[in-house]
């Protein structure tokens, strides 16, 4: 599911900003960006995020902004002076300012003093990380509520279409019988009524959609039951939607009735919209 969470922490010498973004994905695809000073915590952080978020293409970023007056980069004076002396030997009358400009651009002219990892500081950061994750989960819950309402409305529509199909089913059987009888009368043949009834029953058994309606009803009820669960059920809902599709397709192939086929098409349309949105479910 999509989501976004953000949290900030002001420390004495730096400002920490946490951002967590999530897009739809069948599995967990996690990308973590951390400053070098916190890299040793990356594995622990990955495990924590995987446990909390479960699925999605997740981007986790920890930004560190230095707010203190002191900087971690220092001029490496002995190296810079050595470069200047070497350049003076090559160009004796060179301007000192120009030599300085060139020297500070040379390798190792600046040295970065890396501070030791502060476990106490990290404990404060962990609290903010959890805030950002919870913020994103709240975003997901809000989106999930909207999806649930949409699912329930579309399932209700399919139930309504099933009732319409049931009403047309009786009319369809009468229509099939009349059409078969009319075709035989046009051939001007003597009809054995008993044999005719046997053939009609055999033919109608192939067109009977009772089993499909029963199974589809069970799938719809199971979908709603799963929807009301508390665990992550996106994959299960996807599988149930596939089974619903099989029953609707079979119903359409057996219908042999123009109006009924129109209703089946409407059922397929509702189901396709359900399948699209199931991809957004955790």
Tally of separate helices: 8
Strand order of the largest sheet: 1-2-4-3
Question: Which parts are unreliable, with pLDDT below 50 for 5 consecutive residues or more?
Answer: none
Nearest-integer average pLDDT: 83
SSE order, one letter for each helix or strand: EEEHEEHHEHHHHH
Major sheet: 4 strands, mixed
What is the total tally of β strands? 6
Give the DSSP E fraction (strand runs of 2 or more residues): 5-15%
Question: What is the topology?
Answer:
Blueprint (H helix, E strand, L loop, with lengths): L2 E8 L3 E10 L4 E6 L8 H12 L2 E11 L6 E3 L1 H14 L5 H8 L6 E3 L6 H68 L6 H15 L2 H18 L6 H22 L2 H21 L4
Helix pairs in contact: 2-3, 4-6, 4-8, 6-7, 7-8
Keywords: Endonuclease, Hydrolase, Nuclease
Protein name: YicC-like family, N-terminal region
InterPro entries: YicC-like_C, YicC-like_N, YicC/YloC-like
Tell me about this structure.
The protein has 282 residues and is α+β, with helices and mostly antiparallel strands. It starts with a strand and ends with a helix. It has three domains: 3-69 and 125-141; 73-112, no CATH class; 146-279, no CATH class. A hairpin with a 3-residue loop joins strand 1 and strand 2 (14-23). The protein is elongated. The protein has helices at 42-53, 77-90, 96-103, 119-186, 193-207, 210-227, 234-255, 258-278, and strands spanning 3-10, 14-23, 28-33, 56-66, 73-75, 110-112. The mean pLDDT is 83. One of its GO terms (molecular function) is RNA endonuclease activity.
Q: What's this entry about, in short?
A:
The chain has 282 residues and is α+β, with helices and mostly antiparallel strands. The chain has helices spanning 42-53, 77-90, 96-103, 119-186, 193-207, 210-227, 234-255, 258-278; strands spanning 3-10, 14-23, 28-33, 56-66, 73-75, 110-112. It has 3 domains: 3-69 and 125-141; 73-112, no CATH class; 146-279, no CATH class.
